[in-house]
């Protein structure tokens, strides 16, 4: 079964397990194992390490389809696949040990620099605590962003303090049961922590650095691919809400009316607006990905404008998806709030995707600076 065939199957099969996924507050192990075998978590791993190294368009489509089936499952797929990008930046010895020896490996993590890594010879001694550890219960390796210190002094770089993403074996990490939330409840995004864990310095990646592998996919910035992944989940949730509402509109007659929702002009208009929001934002995302890919195929580093466009397309797709879901949720009236109606889950899930820093409202300001010729003063 191809990767796209697996993702397409998820559209039909995952909805039946959504209640189970939410109740468990994590992705069930058998579903995580199916994703491993299908290659979902190897989408952004270089071919030289046994990865699939797919075109970003396929990456977006796979995540969107899985998310149509279930938002939490799509989010787990996104975190596992995007963390795989680290394989292109790790020293070869460590990349092969983590990604090359086990083709079904699952790595997850958090980029926020909430840890402290002290340089001691060839090792890092790391302590820290990170929230939003999506997929940590199923992972083989878990990474965390860390500020770096040497001889008691913080290490500084071009844009400020140096941040390294440090990879820990799963058994080195303490997972705390903290994921009690409204939306994306099945992502298992618990807090996790480490305390004075010793890690070889080579088992870490400098955030914002150019990848060691120079094939076209890895000319794309790590943060740009992560943002596209979050946006793909948002689009999937949006399309799921659209299909759910269409089913409802064909049978529901609002209280006091003899006409079904599907026959009301306001409903027809708002459904059209929602389709336009979803499809236009997806098309824009595909367009900027294609533009960037053409440059990457020439072996060029992406320009600041190209990297900014990736970020703008991702934040736009996320917030257009929110607009579509909110509109459809309101059209559903009282029916939308019942737990057996997928619209309520889509509504809850979509409003959690917007809280991810990669697609939060400040990204509009960041990309606007670039469009106006100003220095964004931070990596994009």
Please mark out the parts with pLDDT under 50 across 5 or more consecutive residues, or reply none: none
Q: How many runs of DSSP E, i.e. beta strands? A: 10
Estimated share of beta-strand residues: 15-25%
Per DSSP, the total helix count is 11
Average residue-wise pLDDT: 95
Main β-sheet description: 8 strands, mixed
User: What's the shape?
Assistant: globular
Radius of gyration of CA atoms, rounded to a whole number: 21 Å
User: Oligomeric form of this entry?
Assistant: single chain
Search tags:
380 residues; alpha+beta; eight-stranded mixed beta sheet; two-stranded antiparallel ribbon; 11 helices; 46% helix
Q: How is this structure best described in words?
A:
By secondary structure, the chain is an alpha+beta fold. Helices cover 46% and strands 17% of the residues. It is built from 11 helices and 10 strands. It has helices spanning 3-13, 18-24, 29-38, 56-69, 71-83, 92-100, 222-249, 265-297, 304-331, 342-353, 362-371, and strands at 107-120, 123-133, 141-150, 153-154, 156-157, 160-161, 163-169, 174-176, 190-200, 204-206. The strands form 2 sheets. Strands 1, 2, 3, 4, 7, 8, 9 and 10 form an 8-stranded mixed sheet that branches. A hairpin with a 2-residue loop joins strand 5 and strand 6 (160-161). Helix 4 runs antiparallel to helix 5 (71-83), helix 4 packs parallel to helix 7 and helix 9 (304-331) packs antiparallel against helix 11 (362-371). The longest helix has 33 residues, at 265-297. The chain is globular.
């Amino acid at each position: 079964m191809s990767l796209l065939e697996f993702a397409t199957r998820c559209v039909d099969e995952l909805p039946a397990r959504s209640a189970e996924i939410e109740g468990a507050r994590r992705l069930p192990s058998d579903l995580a194992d199916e994703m491993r075998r299908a290659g979902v978590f190897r989408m952004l791993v270089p071919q030289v390490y046994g990865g699939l190294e797919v075109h970003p368009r396929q990456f977006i489509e796979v995540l969107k389809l899985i998310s149509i089936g279930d938002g939490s499952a799509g989010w787990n797929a996104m975190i596992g696949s995007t963390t795989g990008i680290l394989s292109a930046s790790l020293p070869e010895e460590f990349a092969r040990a983590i990604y090359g020896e086990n083709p079904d490996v699952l790595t997850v993590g958090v980029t926020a620099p909430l840890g402290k890594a002290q340089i001691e010879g060839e090792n890092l001694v790391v302590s820290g605590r990170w929230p939003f550890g999506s997929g940590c219960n199923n992972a083989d390796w878990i990474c965390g962003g860390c500020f770096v210190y040497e001889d008691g002094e913080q290490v500084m770089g071009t844009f400020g303090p140096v941040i390294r993403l440090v990879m820990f074996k799963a058994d080195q990490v303490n997972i705390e049961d903290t994921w009690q939330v409204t939306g994306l409840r099945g992502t298992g995004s618990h807090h996790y922590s480490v305390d004075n864990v010793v890690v070889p310095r080579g088992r870490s990646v400098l955030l914002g650095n150019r990848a060691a592998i120079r094939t076209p996919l890895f000319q794309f910035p790590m943060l740009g691919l992560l943002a596209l992944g979050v946006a793909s989940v948002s689009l999937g949730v949006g399309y799921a809400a659209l299909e759910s509402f269409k089913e409802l509109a064909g049978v529901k007659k609002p209280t006091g009316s003899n006409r079904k929702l599907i026959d009301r002009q306001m409903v027809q208009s708002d459904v059209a607006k929602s389709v336009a929001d979803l499809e236009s934002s997806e098309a824009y995302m595909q367009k900027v990905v294609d533009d960037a890919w053409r440059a990457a195929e020439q072996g060029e580093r992406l320009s600041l404008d190209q990297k900014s466009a990736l970020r703008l397309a991702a934040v736009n797709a996320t917030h257009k998806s929110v607009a579509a879901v909110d509109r459809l949720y309101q059209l559903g009236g009282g029916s939308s709030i019942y737990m057996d109606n997928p619209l309520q889950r889509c509504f809850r899930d979509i409003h959690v995707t917007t809280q991810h820093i990669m697609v939060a409202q400040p990204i509009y300001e960041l990309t606007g600076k670039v469009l106006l010729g100003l220095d964004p003063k931070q990596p994009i």
